[in-house]
Write a structure and sequence with these properties.
Blueprint: E1 2-7, H1 18-29, E2 35-39, H2 48-59, E3 62-66, H3 77-90, E4 94-96, E5 103-104, E6 109-113, H4 134-137, H5 139-145, H6 147-153, H7 157-185, E7 191-195, E8 206-207, E9 210-211, H8 217-220, H9 223-235, E10 240-245, E11 252-257, E12 260-264, E13 276-280
Parallel strand pairs: 1-2, 2-3, 3-4, 6-7, 7-10, 10-12
Antiparallel strand pairs: 1-13, 5-6, 8-9, 11-12
């Protein structure tokens, strides 16, 4: 049984020094694992390539990763994903999951993944008072929805609808990618690991020990993702699904159905750590 280190929301741009990044990489390398899974919020759009390349140099093992919303700050999804394509093509170890339908981990197990996004379908998005930095610092929102104006001016419902539209477009694309990957992987593997940034269910969004309220749920869950996972667990009853997410910084370990479990990792800014050791049959 192989083991992989799982990390999430490591926010390497918040580290005090390069030595902290090296220490994290050495912790992974010395933990006796075959490689690592990272479920997003690795850095920001300007430093992401540098931080991933530095982490790879220390770890020297396969790193299967997706991105989170913070990874696009200061840039756009198109530009950052293009840079991940280029970096992955040059790298021996870095595996950006949106570039792959699925990847085998062992004869019995495979991994599927995409960045994903919150989809504003749970809770009360239109009346939520939350203001996300995403809408100011990610170009997709600034250009397409008036996101910056909404945050600065406590904007109109029209602006909010634009923000939701951008988010749902991203969420839908991610879910479609993962659904295709699951269909392909399920033909050959009986254990499928799914990594994405935003948790899929209401009960998997936990903050300070409490399930998020209707104000927060729209921006910390991806209902489309959850619906797809429930359908996959029904269609493939002999496949075991293990889902790894982040985004909320609140730890969750939840058995959803007999063959579907979801884990969300705890994290703290400036103190990145291994969220868990994942056993892969």
């Amino acid at each position: 049984m192989a083991k992989f280190a799982w990390l999430t929301d490591i926010h390497l741009d918040h580290l005090r020094s390069d030595e902290d990044l090296i220490m994290l990489g050495e912790e992974v390398r010395k933990s006796g694992v075959e490689g690592a899974f990272i479920s997003g919020d690795i850095s920001n759009g300007k430093q992401l390539v540098m931080h991933l390349a530095a982490l790879e140099r220390v770890v020297q093992k396969q790193i299967f990763f997706v991105l989170g919303n913070h990874d696009f700050y200061g840039s756009s999804t198109e530009v950052v994903r293009k840079s991940m394509h280029e970096l992955s093509n040059m790298s021996e170890f870095l595996k950006y999951m949106p570039l792959n339908s699925y990847l085998p981990l062992s004869p019995n197990s495979a991994i599927v993944g995409h960045d994903g996004w919150y989809d504003a379908q749970l809770g009360d998005a239109m009346n939520s008072k939350y203001m996300l930095n995403d809408w100011v610092y990610i170009q997709d929102f600034v250009e397409s929805s008036g996101g910056r104006q909404y945050v600065q001016m406590m904007g109109s419902l029209k602006d909010k609808k634009g923000i939701i539209g951008v988010a749902q477009k991203q969420a839908k694309a991610g879910v479609q990618h993962m659904m295709t990957g699951i269909k392909n992987a399920a033909r050959y593997h009986k254990n499928i690991f799914v990594i994405s940034h935003v948790p899929p269910f209401r009960e998997t969004h936990v903050y300070r020990g409490e399930i998020g309220d209707d104000q927060a749920q729209p921006w910390y869950t991806n209902k489309m993702f959850g619906d797809m996972l429930l359908e996959a667990s029904r269609v493939y009853p002999n496949v075991n699904f293990t889902v790894l997410c982040g985004h909320t910084h609140g730890k969750v370990d939840k058995q959803i159905t007999k063959n579907l479990e979801v884990h969300v990792g705890h994290s703290e800014y400036g103190h990145p750590a291994i969220s868990g050791l994942i056993e892969v049959p």
